[in-house]
């Protein structure tokens, strides 16, 4: 399974795997794909620096990338303290009441309270870029569309291509005009930030709209070789997968341990493809999340409207921390796509990759038999 | 392009084309697919009898099918007069006010007022089955899931296979248990009645769930050979296309004429993939429609909640008639899928079919080059 894009990156398979876990990202790169490390959780550039140094050592010399979260328009800046003052009391009261109703305990008095994910801020995302460009990264992807022109130039000066997510043709055209090298066509079924056009329609639409001016990766709903074949049928040069790695053995975030999967993983393993919602409650922009008692609470009539980015994430960041600590699979706050219905066992990354490649091959053989 | 399903039906290509137009249905069958005539618009069985007699004569001996609308659960029965009394005055007032605000004139005093589409009623759908089974039909499809067991038996006694739409795995399992032969996996992106799971996820999920007990057609988002290849990659044995035929030259419903496309077609030609909404306002169940000033009005805060099936369709049937007569592309009431973004010119059915077949072939050649 190879395309011009996998050749360009010098990787075995055109499988781009986004994950917040460096262990998963490194395993994806070692397995022949391109592991792309999500940086948004690193409030402190030094933390990212240490993790990327680890990536350099643990990817067998294979390429890897980073994913930043940089809105095209610069949002309200400031320290978390400044921003906190913009959050209405009604919203705070709703969060407190909901957590209490859901039986989510407060943090231990000793625990460090979350300051919110500052990675949503422009200045922090820029620090991620600065840090990453000092490592041997092969890609910078931006989860919120084109980064600013000077960030693209900065990456290009170091010979690093830039990818950007697009949920509609007009996003893709804008990215190309801004100098983006790879457009990630993110379908409605995808986890995290997503638009309303499903992959079946969106991918060929974006491929046709941008022609040869950039490569297209298909994102959303991919977790098997058949789905990779479908994505490449639609004109993509590769796939971008995020959700599917959350149930790999290497994923240890959310307190997965040797004793077994974490609460989040147990929730994901039990979910069907119908158990997601697309909502603004995670970040302020529409994102697909696992449907749980937490997302249900926000869709009740008494719930306030979510705040704009980055305020909503600041509002719920301590809640996310409390929810994570409570380790209750019924109350989880987690972006995931409709492919969660196929995430039914914990497997090593290499085994997932092997199935993608073999499944792709069988799917193409089957198609050949139809000619 | 052939699969075991196209062989079973004795058709050249596994392309099942649903359409309310007998001219389009016949053209699809003549072009090597299987034209499936939507029956819901025939309130009078004799009208359907005449149209199927025409189909028998105009399909060059090729097979064709019919599509009925028969809810699994028997809804409120009665004449339209009985049912009309169940519609709240508030809803009628909203419809009248909205049409007036949108500048949709009343019907000419001479015009026959619509009695609602009685095809939504169980008894009328049964009459469609009775009429159709006296013609050389090759398929009965039900747009609302499994028809009752005795209807399936009635079809099977005449050697006619039964297909049913499914928007989720549990629907598909139920259909198979009821004796349905073909499951149509209808993704979120599809026009008309549709669920929330996109084709990329839904199709392989249904294929895996039902195994060899029934064939699977992929529906939703298909209008090019690349999309056919994607659907077959996902494990389907063929495709079910509805929206795409609305902009064929043979489609004359909605007053298309020799002078040019109808108001509905002009609206479709101008729409992008983002110009649809999934709403209960057409039939009472969630259906994807072209986004127009009419659908916008129903999503405003002052709009009442849509009524259950079949009341909602009775409520809006005269409105649909008035809207059609007004021939204003901005105020159209029309089910269509996200593929509308690719429906940009009026073309003959045979040309569409040719592109599907050639496009499939190129897509598979491209996939082969990736191995």
UniProtKB/TrEMBL annotation, chains A, B:
Transmembrane segments: none
Xref: InterPro entries: Aldolase_TIM (IPR013785), NMO (IPR004136)
Taxonomic superkingdom: Bacteria
Pfam families named among the record's database cross-references: NMO
UniProt keyword terms in alphabetical order: Flavoprotein, FMN, Monooxygenase, Oxidoreductase
UniProt cross-references to Gene3D superfamilies, sorted A to Z: Aldolase class I (3.20.20.70)
Protein name per the record: Nitronate monooxygenase
Organism this protein belongs to: Rhodococcus pseudokoreensis
């Amino acid at each position: 399974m190879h395309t011009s894009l996998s050749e360009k990156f010098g990787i075995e398979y055109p499988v781009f795997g986004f994950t917040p876990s460096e262990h998963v990202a490194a395993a994806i790169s070692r397995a022949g794909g391109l592991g792309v490390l999500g940086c948004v959780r690193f409030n402190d550039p030094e933390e990212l620096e240490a993790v990327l140094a680890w990536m350099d050592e643990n990817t067998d010399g294979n390429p890897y990338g980073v994913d930043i979260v940089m809105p095209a328009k610069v949002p309200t800046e400031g320290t978390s303290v400044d921003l906190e003052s913009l959050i209405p009391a009604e919203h705070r009261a709703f969060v407190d009441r909901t957590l209490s109703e859901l039986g989510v305990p407060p943090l231990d008095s000793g625990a460090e309270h979350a300051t919110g994910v500052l990675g949503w801020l422009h200045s922090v995302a820029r620090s991620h870029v600065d840090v990453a460009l000092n490592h041997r990264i092969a890609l910078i992807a931006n989860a919120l569309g084109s980064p600013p022109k000077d960030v693209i130039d900065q990456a290009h000066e170091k010979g690093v291509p830039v990818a950007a997510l697009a949920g509609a043709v007009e996003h893709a055209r804008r990215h190309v005009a801004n100098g983006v090298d790879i457009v990630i066509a993110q379908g409605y079924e995808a986890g995290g930030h997503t638009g309303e056009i499903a992959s079946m329609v969106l991918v060929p639409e974006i491929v046709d709209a941008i022609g040869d001016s950039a490569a297209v990766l298909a994102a959303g709903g991919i977790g098997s070789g058949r789905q990779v074949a479908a994505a490449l049928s639609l004109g993509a040069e590769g796939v971008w997968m995020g959700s599917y790695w959350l149930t790999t053995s290497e994923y240890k975030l959310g307190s997965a341990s040797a004793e077994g999967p974490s609460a989040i993983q147990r929730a994901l393993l039990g979910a069907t493809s119908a158990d997601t919602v697309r909502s603004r409650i995670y970040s302020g922009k529409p994102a697909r999340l696992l449907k749980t008692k937490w997302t249900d609470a926000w869709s009740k009539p008494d719930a306030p409207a979510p705040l704009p980015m980055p305020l909503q994430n600041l509002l719920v960041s301590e809640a996310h921390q409390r929810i994570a600590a409570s380790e209750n699979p019924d109350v989880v706050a987690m972006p995931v796509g409709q492919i969660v219905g196929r995430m039914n066992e914990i497997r090593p990354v290499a085994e997932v990759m092997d199935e993608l490649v073999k499944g792709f091959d069988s799917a193409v053989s089957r198609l050949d038999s139809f000619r």
